[in-house]
Amino acid sequence: MNNDAEAAYEALIQFLYRAPVALIQLQQEGTIEMMNPMASQLLMPLAPHGDLGNLFSVLGPYADDLQRLCAGFAASHGVICEGRRFNITSVQPQAGAPTVLSLGLLKVDDGRLMAVLADVTQEVAREQRQLANRLASAARVDGLTQLPNRAGALAMLQRIVQRPRQAAADAGALLFINLDRFKHINDSYGNEAGDQMMVLVAERLRSTLRASGRSPGEDTVGEVAARVGGDEFVVLLDRLAAPAVAERIAARLLDRLSKPYQLGGHELACSFSMGIVLLDAGMGHADADDLLRDAAIAMTVAKSDGGDRYVVFHQAMRDQAIQRGGLAADLRNAVERGELFTVYQPVVGLQADGQIDRAAGVEALVRWRHPVRGLVGPVEFIGVAEECGLISAIGEQVLAVACADFVGWQRQLGAHAPRLLAVNLSRAQLAQPGLCDRVSAILAATGMPAERLQLEITETLAAQGKDIQQQLLGLKALGIKLALDDFGTGYSSLSSLHLLPVDTVKIDRSFVSAADTSRHHEVLIEATVKVARSLGMSTVAEGIETVAQAAVVCRQGCDKGQGYLYSRPLESAALLAWLTAPEPVRAP
């Protein structure tokens, strides 16, 4: 061997000797022939009695697997495995001892192997920390929208309320946002479209907040949106100059979110309800969950006020929500126990000679006889029924009972029985698929003639989308009459009345109550009657309470009237007595 070769060989030996990884030459069955100091350092703590004769034996529980791996490698040379990790236990544990080794095996020829061992304990620990961080981050991110989720929002909210305020004007706010009628989108276009809608809403929230130019600071949140439920979002605002800024941001968000959305070839106009909780000094001990609940309560108030608005939370709302929560539980029990009952308010025919036709019809109304509170009016519980999803069940229950009663009256009274039964339809009922089938089943079960049934919907509801129109047309196809309730209070106008598939227009009590004192209201009644009549529709004046009001609606040609002047709502037995009373009530 010449000098250069000797020098190169010596350099190789020195490299192998000083290499920071363990290098081992061994026979096919694991017997160690040579190893460098690093190999001895790594393996010695693992060797029983310090015996480093066989690598596979030193690796203990993994010996059989490694021997099978080597025996199964048929090639004359090549890589058998690399980066194979082993969790190990030292015979004599000591601080800093390796717990995870990485092994690579190379077949040199038919009889010899080379092994490379490395201590990857710290690398594995670092990977585990990174994985834990990624999992923790993922646990706080909504998978659909990539916004922070409920857990992430609560953590940021807690940071805001616990941060010391630097000035009285150093305010924050929590905005709770809910899409009005999101269930309608899912029902009409499918869950996939609903998910896409959530992605579009999230992007609008991001872009609107980004446009504000307010970014988080070292100890602040800035403006952050999060998705906390199916169609529920929150916006966290920090470092506001004044609480009023929160309302300006809320108004901007509502305006931006309410622009039409393009979804699967459809243009959807949506509205949103928003609740605001102001975060100010003195809230350091406030609980984030409680604040989120308060914001949700304010959002519910905004929704019950008609939606498409924001409402700022105040303490009285929480007290009312607690009361409503108790009422909701009682109402659920009431539906099951049959505490709800149906009453009927007469609808009389108005005749030119001042006589009234008592048998023109009745309107079915629901009441609640609470075992403790006594009689609970619909104003108190209908909103609760809508919120807790009971309104459809109650509506169908009222329809079934009323139809059965109506058929019974025909048998009892004959020509003196009411000729038409009016029953209200809720928004929830109209939004449900299969409504026509369920109504048809009730008609069949009770023997109720379809042409004697009039279903009433509010003006606002009738003016909504094509799906509502399709439901209404389906009901008319059964032979049922439709009435537009509370006309004059919603979005429709006389010029668009012909677009609605209704047979009767019910003029709202707010017009009737001022008919005898306001020429303006009388003219509106007159115009409504004329337009309805030209379209082949009949009219009903609601809320007639005085003889003077009755005189006006009669003079303007209303076909029917309803109100306390004629009768309050009556239970079935009392209604029968009213219908057969000897003295008729006269309209002047």
From TrEMBL:
CDD domains in UniProt: EAL (cd01948), GGDEF (cd01949)
InterPro entries per UniProt: Biofilm_reg_signaling, EAL_dom, EAL_sf, GGDEF_dom, Nucleotide_cyclase, Rev_trsase/Diguanyl_cyclase
EAL domain boundaries: 324-583
Residues in GGDEF domain copies: 170-315
Transmembrane parts of this sequence: none
Alphabetical list of PANTHER family matching this protein: BIOFILM ARCHITECTURE MAINTENANCE PROTEIN MBAA, DIGUANYLATE CYCLASE DGCP
Stated name of the protein: EAL domain-containing protein
Biological source species: Duganella margarita
